[in-house]
Design a protein that fits this description.
There is one protein chain. The chain is an alpha/beta fold. The chain has helices at 16-28, 54-64, 75-79, 84-94, 106-110, 118-124, 136-141, 143-148, 181-187; strands at 2-9, 33-38, 70-73, 98-105, 127-130, 152-153, 169-172, 200-201, 208-209. It has a 7-stranded parallel sheet. Strands 8-9 form a two-stranded antiparallel ribbon. The radius of gyration is 16 Å and the shape is globular.
Length: 210
């Protein structure tokens, strides 16, 4: 099977931190590739005036993923799913010849209990948690870890993740990376204008976003 990491987010815009974390995970987990799931919208967050169009965010992700085994995709919008659990279930059914692992930052583990059917996400596929400065303590102390702790695997077992029964969780330590989408927007609030009127091709489905 093709081993595939899944990293979700708004990518508003995609930046070097997304790329460096993904390349780290590719190596640490011996993945064939990573898919960036460019979300049409986060159900846990209110709509923001700073949020660029879905097309512009996908375009920025495609550009940042160049020359790497990373595919940026708007497949979530194309499948019509709103919540992560529904997206992942459809991906597993649609791509039976792939083995998926969900990749998330430690900040998301801290509020994981707010995600719809979060335990079912953990039961569906292994989870790799990327350590993020300032969030590790909250993640370990969070209520989700009270349930997940019994399923944590040692980092030196990470290359065997395709053989794990789920739930299974592994923490991957990555050097701090200060880059953020917020900083990019502050430096260039009109970054999305670079992609206006351009055709964007989905990295997974190859559909054209006009």
């Amino acid at each position: 099977m093709t081993t595939t990491g899944l990293l979700g987010g708004s990518f508003n815009p995609a930046h070097g931190g997304h790329r460096s974390i993904s390349l780290f995970a590719l190596d640490a987990l011996a993945l064939d590739e990573i898919w960036w799931l460019v979300s049409p919208g986060n159900p846990l967050k209110a709509a923001s005036k700073d949020m660029a169009s879905h097309k512009a965010r996908l375009a920025s992700a495609r550009k940042m993923a160049r020359r790497a085994p990373i595919r940026a995709t708007a497949i979530e919008a194309q499948m019509g799913t709103r919540y992560t659990i529904n997206t992942l279930r459809k991906l597993v059914r649609r791509y039976p010849n792939r083995r998926f692992i969900w990749i998330m930052g430690a900040d998301n583990v801290a509020n994981f209990t707010r995600w719809r059917r979060w335990r079912d996400i953990a039961r569906l596929m292994p989870i790799a948690v990327i350590a993020r400065p300032g969030y590790d303590d909250d993640a370990v102390a969070g209520s989700a870890m009270a349930w997940l702790r019994r399923y944590v695997r040692r980092p030196d077992q990470r290359l065997y993740w395709t053989m794990w029964s789920t739930p299974a969780l592994v923490f991957l330590r990555f050097r701090p990376d200060p880059r953020s989408a917020t900083a990019v927007r502050q430096a260039n609030p009109h970054w999305h204008r670079d992609y206006e009127g351009k055709r964007v091709i989905d990295g997974v489905t190859h559909k054209v976003l006009l």
